[in-house]
Amino acid sequence: MEVKKGLYYTNEHEWVMVEEDVAFIGISDYAQHSMGELVFIDLPEEGDEFEKGDAFGAVESVKAASDVYMPISGEVLEVNENVSDNPALVNEDAFENWLIKIKPSDLEELGELMNSEQYETFLSEEN
Amino acid sequence: MRKYDKLIFEISKEKRKAYTLPVLDVEEKDISQLIPQDMQRDEVNLPEVSEVDVVRHYTNLSNKNYGVDTGFYPLGSCTMKYNPKINEDMAALPGFANIHPLQDELTVQGALGLMYDMEGMLSEIAGMDGFTLQPAAGAHGELTGLMIIKAYHEYHKDTKRTKIIVPDSAHGTNPATAQLCGFDIVEIKSDAEGSVDLDALKAVLGDDIAGLMLTNPSTLGLFETNIKEIARLVHEAGGLLYYDGANMNAIMGVSRPGDMGFDVVHFNLHKTFSTPHGGGGPGSGPVGVKEKLIPFLPYPVIQVNDEDEMFELDFDRPLSIGKVKSFYGNFQVIVKAYTYIKMMGSNGLKQASEMAVLNANYIKEELKGIYELPIDKVCKHEFVFSGIKDYHDVTTLDIAKRLLDYGYHPPTIYFPLIIHDAIMIEPTETESKEEMDGFIEVMKLIAEEAKKDPELLKNAPYTTQVRRIDEVKAARDLILKYKPE
After folding, report:
1. Residues A50, A67: contact at Cβ < 8 Å?
2. How much is the ipTM here?
3. Which of A121, B30, B212, B256 has the fewest CB atoms within 10 Å, measured from its CB?
4. Which CATH number goes with the domain that contains B394?
């Protein structure tokens, strides 16, 4: 399972990647792998605002459904309709296929997340 | 005809029919005079078949059914116990079957009396002070219960309470119910044994919490030993406790939700009290409450008139949440559950729970060396394995599919979510040792097959009419409606 470097991770298995003043959010390769083949992805609307830790959407496989939580607070700038049209994309590449793009309201919150090394350690401890 | 797989539309022949209408004795009018044009359709595609076509079609389909009347059905969390046939006899008695809900109360005293008694018996079993029989299913009972909790807080002008706490091991219906009732959901993690983590609970309790939803025994089949402390903490914070009765079959006559500190409970009559499950069952999910919540119960409430000692329906309930179902609930299901309770008696109900627990522990102990048992403790009515012990080349789904080849309904799989590769087994009290031994042997055999030839399991089932179904395709490309070629 891949843990991509340069991203921040949550213990709910979301990742966030910051590029200048926007951030991309998705689920980790570990998350897609443990869910199994995804059949449905529910995403918010553009302009929705969420606090860190809020559920902003849901992913569903034939085994289970799971909420997806905001790693950091912010306003939704764009949702990736490619993945809601074809959830299998997230199974193919969970890092390439982000779920939402946001305008973060407080980048300091990134400090509370894990970097890739910490996330790898977290995964090995969880199993 | 085992291989019969037609849709009723596919056996349709134009102009074939199974009825004859008498000669019209009123003036015939053209359809265009009766129905506005924009509501008319040329093609309705209704199947046109003869009587024998209909009978054979549905008889052949019904022969494909698997149910508790055909075999062992260890579906964890669902309590697929045998439904004694006397239940059906009683529900079919003309005095119960041929009455109308709008009949004068004086002409249905027996039916009202039965419901009144049923509320009393359920109150005694639950340790509650009052019951409503209206809710038509477990989740409907949950919704009714949370509406009562909401009405209670609103009555006390305690309107800050907008959140319901739900443990991560809860049935999926719990958060869904809270959401539907307009609450925000606070999920708390379970501890390593699937119990409520008291520190996690304390961290979220406050004056914004309306209540906590919990099932005990937990979804892992383990008794929540901290329940008194949990109830104290929630009550201290001003919240109420909701008991999901899904696992009540483990504790009838032994412990009572009311004594544990719960304020509202629902029972699933189709689990605990031997009425049919789903598929037109229908369900029934009576809700019980403590004294202080009785004014909020749905109306009408059955009561005894002081003057003439007759049963009557009381609609004058100003604080009631209103009706949650047309009339009085699924009455004949209530008759079946009433029959079961009366047939069993209080000692019989207790014995049923004891046998359900004994049976679950028997299967668990016989298989735990072969299947991974994450929490090795005495369980209640069900327990959860986590795949085959130290062997991961086959999945839980493969094991379940292989069980079909041996003629068993598989256990619940991939639930609860907190156990990886979960296999949740609940034999119920009605299975004999021989039946369970047969299942245990097959489970052992499947584990051996898995190690010798994993491909055998990955391609199972072989003997069923339909082989391995592509569940992903089924979920992604939903086809819900028949369309002619």
Report:
1. no
2. 0.70
3. B30
4. 3.90.1150.10
